Amino acid sequence: MRTMAEMKPLPLLDGLLAPADLRKFTPSQLVQIAEEIRYRIKETVSTHGGHLASNLGTVELTLALHRVFDFSSDRLLWDVGHQAYPHKLVTGRAKTFDTNRQEGGISGFPDPIESPYDLAKVGHSSTAISTGVGVSEGYRRLGQSRHTVVVVGDGALTGGMAFEGLINAGELKSDLIVVLNDNGNFIDAPVGSLHTHLDRIRSGQMYQYVRERFKVAIAKFPRGKDLARLAKHLELAADKLLSPGYIFEDLGFKYFGPVNGHDIVATEEALTRVSKLKGPILLHVMTKKGGGWQPSVDDPLKFHGPKGFDLDTGSFHPKAPASKTYSQVFADALLEIAREDERLVAITAAMPSGTGLRQFAQEFPDRMYDVGICEQHSFAFAEGFAVAGLRPVVAHYSTFAQRGYDQLFQEVVVQRNLGIVITLDRAGMVGEDGETHQGLYDIAWSRTLPGLVIMAPKDGGELRAMLRWCHDERCRAETRAAGYCIRYPREEVPAIAWTTEPAPIARGKAEVLKHATVAPAGVAPLMIWAYGAMVRIAWNALAELGDAAAGVTLVNARFVKPLDNDLLAELASSHAHLLTLEDHALMGGFGAAVAEAVADLGLTIRLSRGGVRDELVPHAGRDRQLALHGLDQAGVVARIRDLLGIRSNAIQFPKMG
């Protein structure tokens, strides 16, 4: 890891003691520190990765916020938080910023553990307005006079929860300032009618001129009683038609803007004006993703979360050829099926690139639906497609899919046999994004729901086979389930030469990859049931143990629901120990499902479970996160040795802080 001594000295930023010092800066110093902030962000992200374009676009806005407000008393909330790097740099973390997203370093998102200037730990979109309403109302009830400021992006306003917060604030008349950071871009291309509305605002230079001319024309109407009333109605209608912020004013907000968010003076003046007002305020600030650095402005998607690029030109350093990721295999397999079945449609929630669906959209643009940051809506939307006779595939990250849990139940499960396919990308440990993004809970929240078939592949070929099997099965009404969930990790697919041909996919049937032979004297036979990404690790662990693992059977579970109880009961009669392995929380996960089956079947076997402890998992590399929970190859080898009674130096697994 690069140390502070190796980072380029930045005199103003390195010498900044507190945000209040920014108020003493001259205009030229503000320009200089903005340049220094951008350089430090690029310097760190180029080495360690992280969010770039969104943060480069909020530099001047951040400086203006901290010059107008005192957030040691006032309160600032960043929606999502992937635009808060400048905020971190001016609130005491410039000297540790090179540790961003690294184990033991600062988080890539706001975190109150790090700084009193971070009010809440965030990472998911569209939540901050609701929190801000609660903060504002709480201070009102306590009789405390503080400003509550929420910075929310135009992309986050596609999420329904953002509007729930706006509606609540308008109803309560909360003293809340919402800064709409409108950069005209999400992670992927912007979608939705709200974006169209904001586009009208961005292009509304003629608004004031037309509005005033319209009022002048109305004023020339004859002044009869009825005509006067008509003129008043026409004037109100004109305000609704022409006012750029009418949608927010209808929700009870006073609307101001748009303001150029890269003009510190203009932004400060606007913030100062609204800071003197009471009630719900929305200040519309226009910025550009990547602002201040042309390569990122030109391609904000490429520079959303980059790593390894030249700080001047933006060109990326050469990389060694990589294997396909699970996301890429999913994209290829889905295209194959879509070419055969024109009824197949794909749905995602603002993540077409991350889930692999951009490729699908290029070939089938009229069959790909990005619904914005609306996971709840996506499941009900898929229900409607299925009811109409189409065959939807809903692609989410595991961490985001859980936001639509009730709709998964009401609009998929309760409907009984819609056959909706749901893929859960980034399942398991996700690495540097940390606590807010871990995909460690989807087995627990999905396997309790009746009618869902839940599975995980051991490699890319099995992912293809599972996707094909799900689609084929739902095409037959007599076998169709309510839904099919397939989870897979954020990693490249393993290139392993399995010693047996893969068994065909069949509902609830596991696959034995290695049968135990004669166990060494004094060693009780062990069977390992591994799920998804853990199959590869278990396989490699057994290969490392060699002859010492002769008495071990390895099962690729494939399904957690329905579980292969027949195979479990059969193997339990010839094995003394059972070890389950999963890249998921132990509570409610795959191992818990196996334990329930062991109890229900009355099996007499010693059961051990390997998985993620009941604790939040902070940011670190995915391999490191697995190791700290005993789920890497070394950890699994040690666990097997212990269960087999093989003497070895114990490997300790430290708890994650």
Walk me through the structure:
The protein has 3 domains: 4-204 and 244-292, Thiamin diphosphate (ThDP)-binding fold, Pyr/PP domains (Rossmann fold, 3-Layer(aba) Sandwich); 326-487, Rossmann fold; 511-643, 3-Layer(aba) Sandwich (Rossmann fold), CATH 3.40.50.920. Helix 4 crosses helix 12 (264-275), helix 6 (128-141) packs parallel to helix 7 and helix 14 packs parallel to helix 16. The two termini are 20 Å apart. Helix content is 40%, strand content 14%. The strands form 3 sheets. Strands 7-6-8-9-11-10-15 form a 7-stranded mixed β-sheet, sandwiched between helices. It has a 5-stranded parallel β-sheet with strand order 1-2-3-5-4, with helices on both faces. Strands 12-14-13-16-17 form a 5-stranded mixed β-sheet, sandwiched between helices. It is globular, with a radius of gyration of 28 Å. It is an alpha/beta fold and 657 residues long. It has 26 helices and 17 strands. Helix 24 links the parallel strand 16 and strand 17 (606-612).
Q: Can you count the beta strands?
A: 17
Strand content: 5-15%
Q: Could you state the CATH homologous superfamily of the largest domain?
A: Thiamin diphosphate (ThDP)-binding fold, Pyr/PP domains
CATH architecture type of the largest domain: 3-Layer(aba) Sandwich
Distance between the termini: 20 Å
* Percentage of residues in helical conformation: 25-40%
CATH class value of the largest domain? Alpha Beta
Number of domains: 3
Give average pLDDT, whole number: 90
Shape: globular
Number of helical elements: 26
Strand order of the largest sheet: 7-6-8-9-11-10-15
CATH fold-level name of the largest domain: Rossmann fold
